[in-house]
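Amino acid chain:
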Amino acid sequence: MTDTPSEQPKQVRISIDLPKELKPVYANLAFINYTPAEVVLDFAQILPRTPRGSLTARVIMSPMHAKLLHAALGQNIANFERQFGEIRLPHTRPNLADDFFRFPGEDDNK
């Protein structure tokens, strides 16, 4: 019996259509929920000093696809930081959202 080199699967190009009516949305908040069968990502937008936000998009995917998304985001963030420098996250408050919705010079002791 001889060993044969394993064949690499052929790369297949997939075309994705971008509908003209598709509107991009901005989100600065995400909620993640899951069941054994799916992961639900709710993206929302909330403005500083406002008591309400609005959901801008909901994406539902399998846990396997969510894990692949996690890996792809990690790779892309690493590429971004190599090109543009480290993305610095605030670490001054227990609730990360408090740092995003604070005005410059606002009293830190509130």
Observations:
- Residues 63-84 form the longest helix (22 residues).
- The mean pLDDT is 85.
- The chain has two helices and three strands.
